[in-house]
Amino acid sequence: MKKIRLQILLSFFYGIFCFLIIGCNGKKEKNKLNSKIEYEFEREMIMYDFGNGSTEKVELYIDKLNDTIGNQYFAYNNGIIDNSKSLFYELSIEKIKKSNDYSGIIKYHFNPNKEGKLVGFTFTVITKTEGKTDFVSFKNYDKIKNQLEFKFKNNSDTLIGHIHSQHTMDIKNNEDKLRLREISISVDNYTKTNNPFTKGMR
Questions:
Q1: pLDDT in the model for residue 109
Q2: 37 or 85: which carries more pLDDT confidence?
Q3: Rounded mean pLDDT of the chain?
Q4: Number of alpha carbons in the 13 Å side-chain half-sphere of residue 163
Q5: pLDDT digits (tens, 9 = 90+) for 78-126
Q6: Residue 162 half-sphere exposure toward CB, CA atoms < 13 A
Q7: Nearest Cα to Cα of residue 58 among 42, 43, 41, 45
Q8: pTM, 2 dp
Q9: Domain 87-199 maps to which CATH number in 2.30.40.10, 3.40.50.2300, 2.60.40.10, 2.40.50.140?
Q10: Do 152 and 127 form a contact (C-beta atoms < 8 A)?
Q11: What are the extents of the domains in the chain?
């Protein structure tokens, strides 16, 4: 009986030992997978000082070869941002509890004297759920509130998206023609990203 009990106890402790080893290895493998994620771009801000309190910040996407792509720019007068002379977005997202649903608001700021009148606005978000990737577009921009409210599903709080706006402006000395200008801006909420829209802006 003692031998049988001893064998049972040894088997029991061996089973626990194996379980702990497998669990630790599983965690190590998961950490290895996370550490192997490679990012195509890193976002960085650079500042230009023009003197007399006039400065400008430019957002750059920098790839692995250190090539840069300009994205947003912010004009400041004595440290106060001038929305009318800048081109940028404001983004906020919030997760809906106990779900993979997110709600968000994006605001678009531009220079109407340079870009013209806003006539079209599309915001596209990449969603990943259950191993499936989708591109979801929103066009219900509220020009009065200067914002677009949107909802999407995602496996994480990482937002990867893109703004495509269209502007028109009268051509001087020609009342019958309009100038059409299209603007593309990459949208991300993390410094490192694999935003595919940025690749198309090269």
A1: 96
A2: 85
A3: 85
A4: 28
A5: 999 998 899 999 999 999 998 999 999 999 999 999 999 999 999 999 9
A6: 18
A7: 45
A8: 0.79
A9: 2.60.40.10
A10: yes
A11: 1-37, 87-199
Segment 163-191 mean pLDDT: 91
pLDDT at site 84: 86
Residue 55, pLDDT above cutoff 60: yes
Amino acid at the residue 102: Y
Report whether 75 contacts 88 (CB < 8 A): no
pLDDT tier at 49 (50, 70, 90 boundaries)? very high
What's the CA gap between 184 and 122, in Å, rounded? 10
DSSP 138-174: E---BTTTTBEEEEEE-SSS--EEEEEEEEEEEETTE
**What's phi and psi for 2, nearest 5 deg?**
-65, -40
Q: How far apart are CA 82 and CA 114, in angstroms?
A: 14
Torsion angle of C-alpha atoms 13, 17, 18, 19, degrees rounded to 10? 100
- Phi then psi for residue 53, to 5 deg, are 80, 5
- H or E segment to which residue 133 belongs: strand 132-138
Rounded to an integer, what distance in angstroms lies between the CA atom of residue 62 and that of residue 43?
Answer: 6
Q: Check: CB of residue 151 under 8 Å from CB of residue 102.
A: yes
